[in-house]
From TrEMBL:
NCBIfam families: PRK05581.1-4 (NF004076), rpe (TIGR01163). This is Ribulose-phosphate 3-epimerase. Pathway: Carbohydrate degradation. HAMAP family: RPE. The keyword Isomerase applies. Binds 1 divalent metal cation per subunit. It comes from Ventosimonas gracilis. The active site is at residues 36, 177. A divalent metal cation binds at residues 34, 36, 68, 177. Its cofactor is Co(2+); Mn(2+); Fe(2+); a divalent metal cation. Its EC number is 5.1.3.1. It is an enzyme of class 5 (isomerase). Keywords: Carbohydrate metabolism, Cobalt, Isomerase, Manganese, Metal-binding, Zinc. Substrate binds at residues 9, 68, 144-147, 177-179, 199-200.
Length: 223
C-alpha cells in the first residue's frame, strides 16, 4: 500500500449507483474502499451487509475493500465478509467478547485484521494483541453517521498510537476516520496517521479527482 492511503467511505456515496461511484473514486486515485457496516444496535444507524461487498466484486471492483464493522456480535459477520471478498476487517473491542479469537478468525480467513477505537476509548485493548493487528483505526467522530466534525482529542490519541506502532517495529497501518477534510488532513498526518478515511470530503464533492488530489497535495506539503 502507499505510504499515505486515501480510503473513500461509501457512506457518502450514491447507493443507487454504487458500482459506478466506487469505480469513479478509484479512477480518481483512491487506494482502498472503506465500507461502514452498521447494525442499529452497536451504533444508531443501519447500513449494509456482506452482499454489498459481493456485489462490488461482481461489478468488477478489484481494489482492496476495507470493512469497518460497527456491529455486535462480530463473530458470524467476520466469516460472511471473508466469503464476500473483504481484504481488511476491523471491529470494536467493546463489541466483541473474545477479541484474540476474532483477530485470529480474520487472519486465518486470509484478510488483514483491525481494531477500532471510539473517541473516548483507551488503547488498552491493544496490550496483548498488538502482534495480531494489521491496522489500528481511530474514530475521530462518534461512530454512526457521516458528515460530523473532527474531534480534536483524536490528534493526541494518534500520537500515542503512532508511538506504540513505531516502538513495536510492526508494519501496522494507522487509520483515521471521521471529519477528515482538506483543511485538517495535514495536521492529522503530522500526528501519525497514514490511512485516511473520507466520506463527505470525497463523495460529497462534484469532482472526485479534484477532491482526492486536494487531499494528497496537503499530505505532500505536510513538512
Ligand atoms: O465511520 C463513519 C461514521 O461512523 C464514517 O466512515 C465517517 O464518519 C466518514 O464520514 P465523513 O468523512 O463524512 O466524516
Amino acid at each position: 500500500m502507499q505510504p499515505y492511503a486515501i480510503a473513500p467511505s461509501i457512506l457518502a456515496a450514491d447507493f443507487a449507483r454504487l458500482g459506478e461511484e466506487v469505480s469513479r473514486v478509484l479512477e480518481a486515485g483512491a487506494d482502498i474502499i472503506h465500507l461502514d457496516v452498521m447494525d442499529n444496535h452497536y451504533v444508531p444507524n443501519l447500513t449494509i451487509g456482506p452482499m454489498v461487498c459481493t456485489a462490488l466484486r461482481r461489478f468488477g471492483i478489484s481494489a482492496p475493500l476495507d470493512v469497518h464493522l460497527m456491529v455486535t456480535p462480530v463473530e458470524r459477520l467476520i466469516d460472511d465478509f471473508l466469503a464476500a471478498g473483504a481484504n481488511y476487517i476491523s471491529f470494536h473491542p467493546d463489541a466483541c467478547v473474545h477479541l484474540d479469537r476474532c483477530l485470529q478468525q480474520i487472519k486465518e480467513g486470509g484478510a488483514k485484521a483491525g481494531l477500532v477505537f471510539n473517541p473516548a476509548s483507551s488503547l488498552d485493548a491493544l496490550d496483548y494483541v498488538l502482534d495480531k493487528v494489521d491496522l489500528i483505526l481511530l474514530m475521530s467522530v462518534n461512530p454512526g453517521f457521516g458528515g460530523q466534525r473532527f474531534i480534536p482529542s483524536a490528534l493526541d490519541k494518534l500520537r500515542q498510537a503512532r508511538r506504540l506502532i513505531d516502538e513495536s517495529g510492526l508494519p501496522i497501518r494507522l487509520q483515521i476516520d471521521g471529519g477528515v477534510k482538506q483543511d485538517n488532513i495535514r495536521q492529522i498526518a503530522r500526528a501519525g496517521a497514514d490511512t485516511f478515511v473520507a466520506g463527505t470530503a470525497i463523495f460529497g464533492q462534484k469532482d472526485y479527482r479534484a477532491a482526492i488530489d486536494g487531499l494528497r497535495r496537503e499530505l505532500e506539503a505536510r513538512d
